[in-house]
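Key result, reporting period 2: structure in, sequence out.
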């Protein structure tokens, strides 16, 4: 059956329950109709996990019988639920498989008043993995980040962990390589220990720095598969190297990604940015709240925002906790650190 959702929402009626003082409390009600069981499962979640979340978050009662969904509650709650369901169903009908994080994000944006027409931003296929799985932006912030990468030559993606900064940059790099917009991909990051002393590592220099570059390898394996990635690495079509390898080079017709840029010094940042050659694009990602530089050293990612602000062709994109697409608990952890104090951007003696 086709859904009876419409932009001109009207409640199907109201009823009442008796309060403690004997007065009648009006309850509004609206009905929605789902196409089939698969759509209902996607909307409600496995074992109704989405349903329970929506009832608690929206403050209304949701009852599903067959393909009919009845939403009951106060007028404001039912109107909010109506809008949420419209957006969730629009996402589903454009091929999205909802997660609890997706449902939570949609509710949050609609509560803020910025959740209209999310389906248009979150259903566009950016690229596909080597297994054919479509890759889409999961938040409006991610969608804007992708647009910035498409438009500008130098893009800075700054924000907390789990927002997809690095992964989406790699996705766009692979997309550009497949479209023959560039001849190679260069992925780099500074080899800085995250507050730990790893001691002596065996092997040659490449083997020593590989642990620092593992997240970049993982993203490549997901997009191209291990075999194709291996062939590209052997041919030099993809290069994954520590930042120190970039000195003295000019990178033409390349898509260059500098990851963990908060751990660059101002001198390293300048060195990297001046490697950009003709026909190249660079994406710089980092989280300025997780600086692992030695005490007293300033982060190049913090300084570059002041220096390059307002220059045409350069875009700064800032992610927030709303863009986190990991376990929802990560949002709560980052909120707690923000409220109670986080790592300083400059480590003091």
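The corresponding designed sequence is given below.
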């Amino acid at each position: 059956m086709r859904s009876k959702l419409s932009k001109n929402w009207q409640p199907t009626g109201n009823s009442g329950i008796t309060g403690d003082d004997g007065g009648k409390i009006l309850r509004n009600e609206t009905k929605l109709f789902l196409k089939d069981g698969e759509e209902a499962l996607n909307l409600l979640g496995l074992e109704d996990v989405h349903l329970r979340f929506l009832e608690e978050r929206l403050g209304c009662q949701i009852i599903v019988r067959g393909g009919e969904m009845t939403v009951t509650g106060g007028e404001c709650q039912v109107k909010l639920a109506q809008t949420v369901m419209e957006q969730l169903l629009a996402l589903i009908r454009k091929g999205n498989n909802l997660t609890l994080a997706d449902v939570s994000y949609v509710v949050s944006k609609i509560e803020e008043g910025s959740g209209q027409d999310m389906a248009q931003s979150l259903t566009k296929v950016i690229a596909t993995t080597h297994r054919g799985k479509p890759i889409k932006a999961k938040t409006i912030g991610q969608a804007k980040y992708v647009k910035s990468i498409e438009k500008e030559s130098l893009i800075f993606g700054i924000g907390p962990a789990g927002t997809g900064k690095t992964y989406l940059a790699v996705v766009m790099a692979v997309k550009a390589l497949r479209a023959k917009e560039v001849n190679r991909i260069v992925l780099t990051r500074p080899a800085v220990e995250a507050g730990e002393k790893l001691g002596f590592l065996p092997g040659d220099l490449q083997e020593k720095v590989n642990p620092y570059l593992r997240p970049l390898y993982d993203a490549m394996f997901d997009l191209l598969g291990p075999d194709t990635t291996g062939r590209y690495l052997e041919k030099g079509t993809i290069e994954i190297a520590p930042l120190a390898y970039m000195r003295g080079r000019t990178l033409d017709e390349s898509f260059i990604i500098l990851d963990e840029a908060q751990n660059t010094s101002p001198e390293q940042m300048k060195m990297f940015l001046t490697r950009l050659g003709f026909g190249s694009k660079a994406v710089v990602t980092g989280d300025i709240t997780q600086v692992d530089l030695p005490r007293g050293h300033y982060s190049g990612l913090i300084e570059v925002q002041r220096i390059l602000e307002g220059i045409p062709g350069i875009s700064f994109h800032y992610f927030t906790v709303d863009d986190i697409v990991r376990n929802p608990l990560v949002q709560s952890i980052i909120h707690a650190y923000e409220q109670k104090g986080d790592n300083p951007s400059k480590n003091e003696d």
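The chain has a mean pLDDT of 84. The CA atoms of residues 130 and 240 lie 19 Å apart. This case is discussed further under Risks and Mitigation.
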